[in-house]
Amino acid sequence: MNLKDASTGETYIVRDVQTNDEEMSSFLFTLGCYSGEPITVISHLGGGCVVSIKDGRYNFDNSLAQAILI
């Protein structure tokens, strides 16, 4: 399952980030979004979702949310 399909208010563990875009992968890593880390879905918006990683909140668009497997 990916973040786009996740339930609001639930905390998940990131299993993998599936992307061939090295820049996107590095960006997610700097946010703390990598395998084994908890991620909480705050809300779903029309174009993506708001998530909480460590001490920050981030808005991910649908393409980014689909790349994060939980």
From TrEMBL:
Residues 1-70 form the Ferrous iron transporter FeoA-like domain. InterPro entries: Fe-transptr_FeoA-like, FeoA_core_dom, Transcriptional_repressor_C. It comes from the Bacteria. Keywords: Iron. GO terms for molecular function: transition metal ion binding. Coiled coil: none annotated. Gene3D superfamilies: 2.30.30.90. It holds the Pfam family FeoA. The keyword Iron applies. This is Ferrous iron transport protein A.
